[in-house]
Amino acid sequence: MILVTGVTGHLGKAVLRNLLQRTDAGNVAALARNPAKVEGLHVAVRQADYNDPASLEHAFRGIDTLYFVSGNDVQRRLEQHENVVSAAKEAGVGHIIYTSFQRKDESGRSPIADVAGGHLKTEAAIRASGVPFTFLLHNLYLDFIPFFIGKDVPDTGVIYQPAGNGKTAFASRDDLAEAAANILLSVGHEGKSYNFSNMAAWSYGDIAEIIGGIVGKKIEYVSPTPQEFLATLQQQGVSAEAADGALAWALAIKAGEFDTPGQDLERILGRAPMQPHELLAKVYGK
Fold first, then answer.
1. Superfamily assignment of 2-138 in CATH?
2. Nearest to 249 by CA among 110, 99, 104
3. Where are the domains of the chain?
4. In this protein, which residues make up the domain named NmrA-like (predicted)?
5. Half-sphere exposure of 91 (CA within 13 A, CB side)
6. DSSP codes of every residue in 81-99
7. Which residues make Cβ contacts (< 8 Å) with residue 59, sequence separation at least 6?
8. Which pLDDT score is estimated for 36?
9. Beta strands in the chain (DSSP E)
């Protein structure tokens, strides 16, 4: 029995969809805090909350493989993850597949050290639990490029991000979900960590050229100083918290945190992952 968490989000829902295309629904269950939000999934739904260890232990009973999507509450994430790991151990879960995070700098000096630290500590907790595990080290979502740079780039003619010449091996959420399903339905993955990145990496300068080719006009990439970037976002009415978050991700890209191309994703998929021009054509080629 496979239990998929995070089914109200894009990734967990896509994993579930991939599984149901290839195995009987009786082999799969979904974890939800509020079952009413996941009606129509065509699988058994187990109710539990990452904040409630007892509910997790009950939901994990009889589960062979847990697809563990990291929580989105950054402030409480580590405590929640420890609850999940402890409950999985107590319930006798046979294998944890955890959606972790691609990174180069594990020293705490990274611009996104808080995010990375939570994942690193979760990985350590899983290792210490003794439950067999697989870590899927996700790169930044390819789908997030339009969110980072804005959908009005063809109109403004500018990508404005303080990421310098840093590159990212973006991978699409749908590819990550399909690869996860492949792992969930096969054997031999215990104790392994997979670099789920694309086969190459791209800078925002590269992205500007790709979009320019799609829309038929020159797109300029401007990399401001952090101070200029924050001031611009403030003028646009972006909250201080959101602006700081956007800056942190850009500076992490500049530092090369996600410049980690590899072959693992291609190998697990059995095909080439989606490339930036494919997604960007859908967004900007209308």
1. NAD(P)-binding Rossmann-like Domain (3.40.50.720)
2. 110
3. 2-138
4. 2-232
5. 25
6. HHHHHHHHHHHT-SEEEEE
7. 3, 31, 46, 47, 48, 87
8. 84
9. 2-4, 28-32, 44-47, 65-68, 95-101, 133-138, 158-160, 167-168, 192-196, 202-203, 220-222
